[in-house]
Write a structure and sequence with these properties.
The chain is of the alpha/beta class. Helices cover about 20% and strands about 20% of the residues. It contains 15 helices and 29 strands. The strands form seven sheets. An eight-stranded parallel beta sheet has the order 19-18-15-14-13-10-21-20. Strands 2, 3, 6, 7, 8 and 9 form a six-stranded antiparallel beta sheet that branches. Strands 22-23-24-29-26 form a five-stranded antiparallel beta sheet. A hairpin with a 2-residue loop joins strand 16 and strand 17. It starts with about 25 loop residues before the first strand and ends in a 17-residue tail after the last strand.
Length: about 650
């Protein structure tokens, strides 16, 4: 982690003058420098067309404690990278004591990029980025997403067995194993994909008031197309909604009702594979030399066989090298991506399953082309108002350039680091295929992980990626933290105060437990809402509700930057800074002694206002702010930001060359 004395920059509006620059635009970038950092000059380094180029920054504002430096960057390329070169004296702490013993202080050579200050040369991987591609929709950064697994969220009255509410449905296809709503989930590998509890889209529609009450404004549905499993990631067609869920009409009713409640609907599409019952694959098998056979990847090691996702025989892999397949998916109003998007069509946005593997196989890598074509289809169908999120579980730096996926499900830069901080000491889950259990780490390593992953993409991609503590594929947060509701609150606090688009999996807000995968897909216990059986924690739901309302109300939380102030052991302290407002966030997983944040880092804190029920009055002293916690806690204070105005671009600025 960087020290409190380090200069700071991020891609937020307080530090970057234009969040959506056009090609060729000149963008001003600012650097906040504590006076104690002893910086005498700042140079902005860019790499137009791959060659480095330097321009000088200048001091535009000075206080007793800090200086604001401003420089300019020309957006010469669609994605323009930049970093700062700092000049000044090298202090003894920064140099590891090399200047001790009366030796003269030397001129410092310091780089600042997305991972912090470095006394050595570093690669360009973590440089800051300006993106000139069309931006994501305006609404997205303020959104809170609620994920629903349709079979397990809610039934509707039309499918309830007569005289047996919650009983097994009698109208299911042959592959399905009917279950009562309160039955345990089947955990056997061969059993769980077939167990159907009978949730429907009309059932989800009837429960939209729960989302409204919670404050969520995007309903994300896992797949709704016909399939031969309860998860439906093995679609048999993309031309219709599964009749088990209510068919096309039910989806349109759900979208219409959602819009009336101010909620957008996000669909889930598999572009990497289909199910083996899909009509395209059936045609391919009927005629191995016909048109549809080339829509799937052939296994060159097994003549006559097709490649499948991770060897799962029911999930044959699509071959995006075939232009006809890509056209069917993304070209025209009747393509798979476009036909379901827009008012009265079902969905407003898409989440793309296994996006990291889509278009990739051995020597073929068409992922970027697929992403660009999918993005273009989403933009056409929605007038630029659709959000496109890619599933990705590890390093996504080479897949989010700005003209394809808007962002990812941020498993790598949020979910996993949060798990390593909050998982129970006696519970070590594995994470999506890892052979080893997740370690339990201190806040310093967690913050470093988050910062590293933030640094490898643009600020735009980072803030338009979904943050999630868990999903339908992972351990639920209540089980992760050892059934400790106070730690669930800490997880919720991180989810709703850190940058990104928060995603809550149905039931997390009421404390539903569940281990990996199917066990986490238990039916929503609506019947427990009015009882005292322990399956519905209304107090926890109220906590989520309050945090979501706070996020909606605070521009610093939905649109501010990110500055780490302290991260060690059980404690995280950070600032979210926006031109209108600053938020100081203190999160602890356990009781801790006083942590003092220097006054130089929290200018304006004297006017701080506590924003959560847990938040005490801020202890401001002459030297700084003192923070302590008697146990797990989330505290948020806000105050008006006092930042200098942007200076005009100097007439002497030479542009990119």
């Amino acid at each position: 982690m960087s020290r409190a004395v380090d200069p700071h920059h991020d891609g937020s509006p307080l530090y970057v003058s234009d969040q959506h620059p056009a090609p060729g635009a000149v963008v001003s970038v600012r650097l906040r420098v504590p006076r104690s950092a002893a910086v005498s000059a700042v140079h902005v380094r860019t790499t137009p067309d791959g060659e480095q180029f330097f321009t000088d920054a200048r001091v535009v504002h000075r206080t007793e404690d800090e200086e604001w430096w401003q420089g300019e960057v020309t957006c010469h390329n669609p994605v323009t990278t930049y970093r700062f070169l700092l000049e000044g004296e090298e202090d003894e702490e920064a140099s590891g004591g090399r200047t001790g013993g009366g030796a003269p202080r030397r001129s410092a050579y310091r780089w600042l990029n997305g991972t912090g200050v470095h006394l050595r040369d570093v690669p360009d991987t973590s440089d800051y980025r300006l993106v000139t591609h069309a931006p994501p929709p305006d609404w997205a950064q303020r959104a809170v997403v609620y994920q629903v697994f349709p079979d397990r969220f809610a039934r509707d009255e039309a499918v309830e067995p007569v005289g047996d509410p919650g009983g097994p449905r009698a109208d299911l296809p042959d592959w399905a194993v009917p279950a009562r709503w309160d039955d345990p989930v089947a955990l056997g590998r061969g059993d769980n994909p077939a167990q159907v509890f009978g949730g429907t889209l009309d059932g989800a529609r009837e429960r939209l008031d729960h989302l409204v009450d919670l404050g969520a404004d995007v309903l994300y549905l896992t797949p709704v197309f016909p399939a031969r499993s309860n998860h439906r990631y093995d679609a048999s067609t993309f031309e219709a909604v599964d009749p088990v869920l209510g068919g096309d009409a039910a989806l349109l009713r759900l979208q219409e009702a959602a819009h009336e409640h101010g909620i957008r609907v996000m669909g889930d599409i598999t572009t990497n594979h289909t199910g083996d019952a899909h009509e395209w694959y059936a045609a391919a098998r009927r005629d191995p030399d016909g048109e549809f056979a080339s829509w799937y990847v052939r296994d060159d090691g097994r003549p006559g066989e097709w490649v499948t996702w991770l060897g799962v025989e029911s999930l044959p892999k699509l071959d995006h090298a075939n232009p006809a397949l890509r056209a069917r998916l993304t070209e025209g109003p009747e393509s798979v991506i476009e036909r379901w998007l827009g008012e009265g069509r079902g969905f407003d946005s898409w989440r793309v399953d296994v996006a990291n593997m889509t278009g990739r196989y051995k020597g073929s890598d068409l992922t970027h082309q697929v992403a660009r074509e999918t993005r273009a289809a989403v933009d056409r169908a929605t007038g630029g108002q659709g959000l496109l999120i890619a599933e990705h579980t590890h390093d996504h730096s080479r897949d989010v350039d700005g003209d394809g996926w808007h962002g990812v499900m941020n498993y790598s830069g949020f979910t996993r680091p949060v798990w390593t901080w909050l998982r129970a000491a006696d519970f070590a889950p594995k994470f999506l295929g890892s052979p080893l259990q997740v370690p339990r780490l201190g806040a310093e390593l967690v913050a470093e992980t988050m910062r590293d992953f933030c640094s490898i993409v643009s600020w735009r991609a980072w803030t338009h990626s979904m943050t999630l503590v868990g999903s339908h594929d992972t351990t639920r947060v209540r089980t992760l933290v050892g059934d400790d509701v106070e730690q669930v609150k800490v997880a919720a606090g991180l989810l709703l105060t850190l940058p990104g688009i928060p995603m809550i999996t149905y039931g997390d807000e009421i404390g539903m437990p569940g281990d990996f995968g199917e066990d986490g897909r238990r039916p929503m216990p609506w019947g427990s809402r009015e009882t005292d059986d322990g399956l519905w924690d209304e107090a926890l739901a109220g906590y989520y509700r309050d945090l979501i309302a706070l996020r909606h109300d605070c521009p610093a939380l939905w649109g501010g930057g990110m500055r780490w102030l302290y991260a060690e052991g059980d404690v995280m302290v950070f600032l979210r800074e926006h031109p209108e407002q600053t938020a100081l966030v203190h999160v602890a997983r356990a009781a801790h002694d006083d942590v003092e944040i220097p006054t130089t880092q929290v200018a304006g804190a004297g006017a701080a206002q506590g924003r959560t029920p847990q938040t005490a009055g801020l202890d401001v002293t002459a030297s700084g702010v003192r923070l302590a916690a008697p146990g797990p806690t989330v505290q948020v204070w806000t105050w008006a930001t006092d930042a200098p105005a942007w200076e005009p671009v100097p007439e002497t600025y030479r542009g990119g060359w």
